Structure formats: C-alpha cells, structure tokens
Amino acid sequence: MSSDALLSVVGVEKSFGGFQALRGVNLEVSKGGALGLVGPNGSGKTTLINIISGIYAPTAGKVRFGGQDVTGRLPHQMSHLGVNRTFQVPKPFGSLTVRQNVEVALGHSRRSGRKTDDILAFLDLAELADREAGSLNTAQQKLLDLGRALATDPQLLLVDELGAGLSPADLDLVAEKLNALRRDGITMLVVEHLMGFLGKVTDDVVVMNAGAEIFFGKLEAAAQDPKVVEVFLGG
Ligand SMILES: Nc1ncnc2c1ncn2[C@@H]1O[C@H](COP(=O)(O)OP(=O)(O)OP(=O)(O)O)[C@@H](O)[C@H]1O
Ligand SMILES: [Mg+2]
C-alpha cells in the first residue's frame, strides 16, 4: 500500500452462492483524492461499495482504511471510522421531513461536527427542510441521500451513481457540490456511468468488467484502451 492511501482494496472477492461477483479487486484511493469507478451493468461496482461500507463481508481479500485492516466491519462501525456512502437508489424515510432525515443520520453519528442547517443549506435543501422526503423529486432525493451521508462527517465518501436520472443542470450542480466537498478534504470513490460528470469530479478511474479491474489511469486514456473499448463496445 502506498503511504498516502486512505483506502486500499486488496484482492477482494465476493461470491453470492455459486456466483462470483468480485474476482480479486485491487484499488487504492489516496488521501484527498477522487477515484472514479466505471464498468458495465453487473460488473460489481455496487458490490464493491457494499463491501467497503460494511454491508457485505468479502469472501476473500482485505479492505484497509487509514492503514487499519477494516475487513468485515459493520456499516455503523465504518461510519464511526469515517466511511459513508450514497445509495444508487436513495431510500429516505418518506414520511419524515427532509430535516428529520438528516437529523436521524446525525443521531447515529459519533463523529459529527456538522449541523443539520449547514448541510441543508450546502445542498440547497433549506427551503425544503419541512417537506416530507417522499414528496421530493429524484434530484432532491439524491441530494438528501448525500446529506444523510455527510451528517456522519465522512473522511471517505463512496458515491454510487449520484448522477443517474438527473438533468444536465442538476448534474452540474451535483458536480459542484462534490468538488466543494473535496476542497473541504473529503476523499471520494465515485461510481458513475456518465463520463462527462465523472471527468468533472475525479482524477483517475478504475474500469471494472465481470468482477475484476481491467484498467487504471486517466479517463481519457481509458477511452483509448483496447480492453476497455472491447468491454463497452463489444466484440
Ligand atoms: N445480494 C446479491 N445476491 C446475489 N447476487 C448479487 C447480489 N448483489 C449483487 N449481485 C450480483 O452481482 C453482480 C454485480 O452486481 P452489482 O450491483 O455490484 O453491479 P454494478 O456494477 O453495480 O451494476 P450497475 O451498473 O447495474 O449498478 C450482478 O450480477 C448482480 O446480480
Ligand atoms: Mg450498481
């Protein structure tokens, strides 16, 4: 592991019954960095985020965070250590207000110096604070899900397709928010299918296919890589 790695994933495998969803994934995210994670549907991106955030234990391999072996820690333990994530499909407490949703997350956090009002203002949700979360549109629900993750004051934020389903204007807004969080010192692993968005918020990308990484480097270089082209455009 390089000395500035905040997160290291080493040889991580995950099987569901007889199906091997991850086949030995290796990646590192340096402290303060933002790594993109790209790959076709079913290539294992969300499974990897589920393992790093503690929802699943890997079948083999290790997860290191801040130099510590955190393999198999549970989600609340990872959250207390400073790792939280957004969900590909956000599931806010629909009958609670926007404010209450963030407060619930704050209540579960041991770390937080963040305040609900600051989080809502940062995400442009202040005017919606007293609305039921179930009445929000897709973009607002995604921002609220990000707010729930921010309430735990993460050092490492795992972002799972925050851009999916957003309008171009909302995508630009969300990219700005992520970049502001990064300037604040939050390290990120960003799963995304939208390459324009990914280019705005990450330095380098890992490309996955069928549960293994096939490329690491600049997004522009990925688009020229024969293995990556093969996977995305088909043989
Ligand atoms: N809990 C589970 N039980 C069984 N199979 C699973 C489970 N979670 C994921 N899988 C399978 O593992 C593979 C990887 O799924 P995953 O959701 O990680 O893909 P993904 O890269 O995030 O795809 P997408 O881009 O569509 O979100 C898929 O074949 C999926 O069906
Ligand atoms: Mg996914």
Write the layout of secondary structure elements.
Layout: E1 5-16, E2 19-30, E3 34-38, H1 45-52, E4 60-65, E5 68-69, H2 75-81, E6 83-85, H3 98-107, H4 116-122, H5 138-150, E7 156-160, H6 168-183, E8 187-191, H7 195-201, E9 204-209, E10 212-217, H8 219-222, H9 226-233
Parallel strand pairs: 3-8, 3-9, 6-7, 7-8
Antiparallel strand pairs: 1-2, 1-4, 4-5, 9-10
Helix pairs in contact: 3-4, 3-5, 6-7
Magnesium ion (MG) binds at residues 45-46, 88.
Describe this structure in words.
This protein is α/β, with parallel strands linked by helices. It folds into two domains: 5-82 and 154-233, P-loop containing nucleotide triphosphate hydrolases (Rossmann fold, 3-Layer(aba) Sandwich); 97-153. Helices cover 34% and strands 26% of the residues. The chain contains nine helices and ten strands. It has helices at residues 45-52, 75-81, 98-107, 116-122, 138-150, 168-183, 195-201, 219-222, 226-233, and strands at 5-16, 19-30, 34-38, 60-65, 68-69, 83-85, 156-160, 187-191, 204-209, 212-217. The strands form two sheets. It has a six-stranded mixed β-sheet, sandwiched between helices. The chain has a four-stranded antiparallel β-sheet with strand order 2-1-4-5, with helices on one face. Strand 4 and strand 5 (68-69) form a beta hairpin. It starts with a strand and ends with a helix. The structure holds adenosine-5'-triphosphate and magnesium ion. Adenosine-5'-triphosphate binds at residues 16, 19, 21, 39, 41-47, 88.
